[in-house]
Amino acid sequence: AELALAAIGFLYHVEAHCRKRGRSAAERLALRRRVSRPVYEALLDWAEYEQKNNLSSGAIGKALKYAKDQLPRLRPCFEDGRLEVDNNLIENSIRPLALGRKNYLFAGSHEGARRAAMLYSFFASCQRLEVNPRAWLREILDRIADHPINRLDELLPHHWVEAPATASTEEE
Length: 172
Prior knowledge:
Layout: H1 2-20, H2 25-53, H3 59-70, H4 88-99, H5 101-104, H6 110-129, H7 133-143, H8 164-169
């Protein structure tokens, strides 16, 4: 197991190196193919060998089966440098939703829950786009009543550009 943990740690180290140095997708792909893929292939071989030779049906056997089943899903990362090696970005973005799950039971109605989900989506978009959500919402609420209904998409966070005066006076 120490070998597998070291290999996985190495793969993450390469990814951290790419992020820290601001590598492009093409550069990250080249580094993955040159440095990470041999470690990944060795990890695949190790998982297959260990599963065949481990007769345990307990926790170790289950972990080996899981590793052998899941590791092939990493293969697309060695074909496209834009892909991440894990789903941490998604997991971190849905964590607040999972933590507040019981609170959402009390949205009042199905329509209330739908509206809350829309707001969460808007705020997640703001966060991802580095848009101040409070400033965005304040401006959108001021503009929406007079905005043409067939052009509401113009008010979405990815179309909104924060005015410099608003940006300097707003606190998140």
